[in-house]
Design brief:
Structural class: alpha+beta
Helix content: 40-55%
CATH topology of the largest domain: Alpha-Beta Plaits
CATH class of the largest domain: Alpha Beta
Length: 317
Amino acid sequence: MPRASRIDIPNLLQHVIVRGIEKRDIFTSDNDRLDFVRRFSKLLESTGTECLAWSLMSNHFHLLLRTADIPLSRFMRRLLTGYAVTFNLRHKRTGHLFQNRYKSIVCDEEEYLLELVRYIHLNPLRAGLVSTLDDLDSYPWCGHSVLMKRNELPGQETADILSRFAKTVSAASKRYHSFINDGIAMGRRNDLVGLLRAGELPDGEFKDSRVLGGGDFVEQILLHTENECSPKTHTLDQIVEIVLGMFEIPQAELMSRKRSIQLADARSIICHAAYLSGHLGVDIARRLNISGPGVTAAARRGKDLIENFPQLLTLVS
């Protein structure tokens, strides 16, 4: 069977795993690691890509990225090609350095961000590259030491992570450190690297190593990938304007917490129409100020509602 194509969606969390060809080492010295880290940092800053976690092992590495305007595929191509060329020159070798396909897993940020940060940052300790958590605190080839303020990596997002633990940096660092310590006993988490069932859809089980999330999240990603090759028939703003005009609802009410049957109906139809126009669930959620699972539930409801408004059917035709 042909391999499934990667899911390359901007603004979503991606866990990237890259391995050396035939499980060979891709970092043989600190010079190699320093070269990689410098390239990685420079590329993060120049492309606006956010790094939430990272760790370098001997024959592979982990990155937790949130891409922006530059697709993940282009970001990784620039990173891997540049490093491989320099590595081969430095070590007087030829041929491929990496496996042909890196692994990338689209992740539900609300559910898995902190778990992935912990899993990735504990890799050097689990592999025996450092002996204790105290050693990991200063280990230069892992994003944990950056969060602990022992090292720096321009381009790594630290405020976003620490703010999830406490309001002040000092308190957040302590709670983050305790959170990492609690993960040591968990060992390897197969559920975080695409080896277990990713989610369950309404019509039964669904397995896809490209996605980490529950059924609602998986469904959003699948709907997006099904529609991404088709040109969008309407922008989000156009859909919102048409639906609100039909219901005579002011724009300001759409983003409010006001509850009414009319407003709920309008949001549901907007979600359904936006999905079918190829818009991503996370963008719809942001536009309507609702949660990702809320978008999925509303879209299902909107599918039935829209049939009662023939004048709106052009939105989904």
